Amino acid sequence: MPQQFKAPRGVSDLLPADQPYWRFVRETAVRVAESFGYGQIDTPVFEHAGVFLRPNAEGTDVIDKEVYLFQDRGGDELVLRPEGTPPVVRAYLEHGMASAPQPVRLFYVISAFRYDRPQAGRYRMFHQFGVEAIGEADPYIDAEVIDLLRTFYDALGLRDYTLQLNSIGDPVCRPAYIDKLRGYYSDKLDRMCGDCRRRFDLNPLRLLDCKNEPCQPFKADAPRLIDNLCEACEAHFAAVRSLIDDLGIEYNLDPLLVRGLDYYTRTAFEFQPRVEGSQSTLGGGGRYDGLIEQLGGRPTPGIGFGTGLERIILNLKRQELDVGAGRRPDAFIAVADEAAAGKAMQLAHDLRLAGLTAVLGSPGRSLRAQMRHASAVDARYAAIIGAQELADGSVTLRNLETSEQANVPLNSALARLGGANAAS
Ligand code: AMP
Question: Is 81 in the pocket of ligand 1 (CB under 6 A)?
Fold first, then answer.
C-alpha cells in the first residue's frame, strides 16, 4: 500500500474551523498597521543565505541551530526566512527606499520557519505580524512602534499582558559592559549549561536570558546594562520611557531582557501574557541600528517588532473570545434528479452573483444523503430541484432551522433567500 503521510513535525494545517480566528487576527493587523500609516510589504519565503547568515549573526539560537538552509538545483545557498526583519531591510535597500522621506513605515503578515523543538506555542512553521520603521533614530518612533503593538493587542481584545522594557546599549557602551559581564561570569562557567559556555564567547548578552536551571542563580547579581549605558543611550532610553508614560502605557523595566538576534541596539521590548511561562512571549522587538549597514546599506537606524499569530490565537481561545463564525452557506442545492443538475448549477451561479453562498449537492447521491450534507455544512436553506421542479420551473425551499418548506417559482428563489439583487 502507498504510504500515508502526516504533516512534518512542528507544522500544522490551519483547518476551516480555525479560519475565523486567523481572519480576525490578520484583518486586525492590517487595519491597525494601516491606521498608523504603515504600508504592507510581502517578501519571498526564501532569501540568499547571506541575508540571515551574516558574520555577526553567530551566537544566536535562530542562526546557529534553527535556520532551514538548503541548496537549490542551481547550487544557490538559500534560507527559509526565520523572521521578517532582514528581508524587509534587503527590500528597503534593493528598491531605493532610502531616498524616500524617512522613516519608511512597513508591515507584513508572513510565515516563518525555525528548526525549533516543537511544543505548545512553538512550531517549525509559524506566522508573524511585524512592522519595521526604517530611517529614524528619534525616540518618538520607538514609542510609536510599541504603541502600535499594544493597540493591536487591545483591538483583538487580548487582556492580561505586560510590557517589559530594556535598553541594550549600542557599540559605544556595549563592549565595555560585555567585558564586565564576562568578568562576572568567568569563574561561574563550570557550573553553567553548555549553551551558556558557548554564549560566553559568541554572544555573552544572551547569558542573561538563559532559561536553563543551573544558570538561574547567577542572574540576580550580574552587572546590569541599564546601569552602564553611555550618555546618548541613556538619554534615548529616558525619552522613550517618558513618551510611553505620556501614552499611558504601563511597563516593567527588565534588565535581563535581551533579544535573541544579534543586531539589536538600545530599546528592546517584549509583551508577555501574565499567565504563562517563559516560552510564551506574545511579541517583541527593538531597535536595530546596526542591521542596515550589515546588509550593505549606509548607516541607518531602524526599529520594529514581530508577534506570533499562533500564540495570539492560543490566548484568544483561552480567553474564549468571540471572533465570529465562518460564513454559513445560504443555500445547499439538493439535486433530486440527475437531469436537474444543469438547472441546479445555474441556480447556484445566480445566487452567488447576488452575493449569496451556495453549495451544490452531488446529483448521484440520494436526497436523504444530500439533506444530511446540507445540515453538516450548516446551510440556512436547502433548495431542492427534482423532476417535478424541472418540469414546472420551480424550486422547493426548505428552511433548515424551522423545517418550513415551500415550492416557489425558480425566479423568486433569489428574493426568498435574500440576495443583493433580489428586487431586479
Ligand atoms: P522573535 O523573532 O524570536 O523575537 O519572535 C517574535 C515572536 O514570534 C515571538 O514572540 C512569538 O510570538 C513568535 N515566535 C517565535 N518563534 C516561534 C515559534 N517557533 N513558533 C511560534 N511562534 C514563534
Answer: no
